[in-house]
Write a structure and sequence with these properties.
- By secondary structure, the chain is of the alpha+beta class.
- The protein folds into two domains: 1-31, no CATH class; 45-193, Umud Fragment, subunit A, CATH 2.10.109.
- It is 23% helix and 25% strand.
- It is built from six helices and eleven strands.
- Strands 1, 2, 3, 4, 7, 8, 9 and 10 form an eight-stranded antiparallel beta sheet that branches.
- A hairpin with a 7-residue loop joins strand 3 and strand 4.
- The protein is elongated, with a radius of gyration of 26 Å.
Length: 197
């Protein structure tokens, strides 16, 4: 007489054991992928939720209606390479380095910018290795940008926003090259920075 016939409960536990053993190997199988996922999130791509009205109306166009947030793909590989006016970037806030901020590049190094409130000076020439960033919102009180912090060092830039992932009706590539420019910016060059280091 077998043990399974005498103790049917014991027989069911024996049948469960191979499945339990198989399930216990899944974390071990996934373990080698954890460093790759962390590396990808830190250095290749990241998903960013756009909070607040500072990039309205280009991002979060229905923010005033239902407080929905756009979800964007943040491309982090070589974030400081091939920057241009109109590009939407993510960077570490100068005031709170643990916070990631999303704004548009308005001016590059050497450009002369006519500032908005609360900037204390009427014009600023962007120094070398810096960019001037602003939110798209016309109300300067709804965005903390270079008018508050001054020009942003290139070393703080952590990525470029390339795609809108959600909501689905807005899914697609971000066409920053269609940005028409800002009338408050006079394009300059590094030669204009003779007094800056």
């Amino acid at each position: 007489m077998s043990i399974g016939r005498m103790f049917p409960h014991f027989n069911r536990k024996l049948q469960w054991r191979p499945t339990w053993r198989e399930l216990s190997f899944w974390p071990i199988r996934l373990l080698p992928w954890i460093p790759a996922i962390i590396f990808s999130n830190d250095h290749v791509i990241d998903v960013v939720w756009i909070n607040g009205p500072s990039m309205y109306p280009f991002l979060n166009p229905s923010f005033n209606e239902n407080l929905s947030k756009d979800v964007c793909l943040n491309y982090k590989w070589n974030p400081r390479k091939n920057l241009g006016r109109g590009m939407i970037i993510s960077y570490q806030s100068p005031a709170h380095p643990e916070v990631q901020v999303v704004k548009r590049i308005i001016a590059m190094e050497g450009d002369l910018v006519t500032t908005r409130a609360p900037c204390p000076v009427p014009t600023v020439r962007v120094p070398a290795n810096h960019v001037w960033v602003e939110g798209d919102n016309e109300d300067s009180g709804k965005t903390l940008d270079s008018n508050t912090f001054g020009p942003i060092p290139l070393n703080l830039i952590s990525g470029k926003l390339t795609y809108v992932l959600g909501p689905w009706k807005r899914f697609g590539r971000i066409h920053w090259e269609d940005y028409e420019g800002n009338s408050r910016v006079v394009k300059g060059s590094l030669d204009d920075l003779s007094g800056w280091d």
